[in-house]
Specification:
single chain, two-stranded antiparallel sheet, 9 strands, 23% helix
């Protein structure tokens, strides 16, 4: 088995929001906080966003199933599409373990309350008397980081996973909720990859990108 570790450094251009299950005075929707009070973007949100972006990039070049509907995802665990091999599915868990995205700066000025108005998509107009307040991070730029790691049977499988995660991360436009309202837009995501503590060169990742986006699997 080989150990893959991917460190992602995120730079957000705008404030972001993900709704947590806590209460905050003055906000209808509060940010997610961990048990230690740290503001985070949950690991599940990051994994979902990366998988969605990966599927968008791959579709039309290589076969990918129709996630997230379990009935439309790969049925045979021995014949999985690239997205299911890396991110898993209901029949075979991913070998990758995603961790929460942690904001670099934590303190009293970390968050702010923003007002918003509900919009009717059908009428394309504001809904009367539907003012609400959302807790977001402070206005960007904002920096955060996270680690993705996993054990793989072979060097090639670890490289494949690293290549797909990094490809999706580099082209991910935004994270979290409220993107249509300008929240969560990313300036860049930089990645550092290592297999068994040995750095993985960009040229290795690029070989996989050229193979996939060139139409071959």
């Amino acid at each position: 088995m080989v150990q893959l570790e991917i460190t992602l450094h995120l730079r957000c251009r705008t404030a972001f929001h993900t709704t947590g299950n806590r209460w905050r005075w003055g906000a209808d929707k509060a940010l997610v906080q961990r048990y230690d009070g740290t503001y985070v973007l949950p690991a599940t949100s990051l994994k979902g966003a990366l998988r969605d972006q990966a599927e968008r990039l791959l579709r039309g070049h290589v076969h990918v199933c129709a996630a997230p509907d379990p009935g439309q995802m790969c049925q045979d665990p021995d014949n999985l599409c690239l997205a299911c091999r890396v991110f898993g599915n209901p029949r075979r868990p991913s070998r990758l373990r995603f961790t929460d995205v942690v904001l670099d700066n934590q303190g009293p000025e970390t968050t702010q309350i923003r007002a918003g108005v509900a919009i009717s998509r059908r009428r394309r107009a504001a809904v009367p008397q539907r003012l609400y307040f959302v807790e977001t991070t402070a206005a960007g730029p904002l920096e955060a980081q996270t680690v993705v790691e996993g054990l793989f049977p072979s060097q090639q499988e670890a490289e494949e996973a690293a290549a797909l995660v990094v490809l999706a991360a580099r082209l991910l436009p935004a994270l979290g909720a409220g993107r249509t309202r300008g929240l969560g837009w990313l300036e860049a995501i930089k990645a550092e990859c290592a297999i068994d503590d040995q750095p993985l060169a960009d040229m290795v990742l690029e070989r996989y990108w050229n193979q996939w986006l060139g139409g071959g699997q």
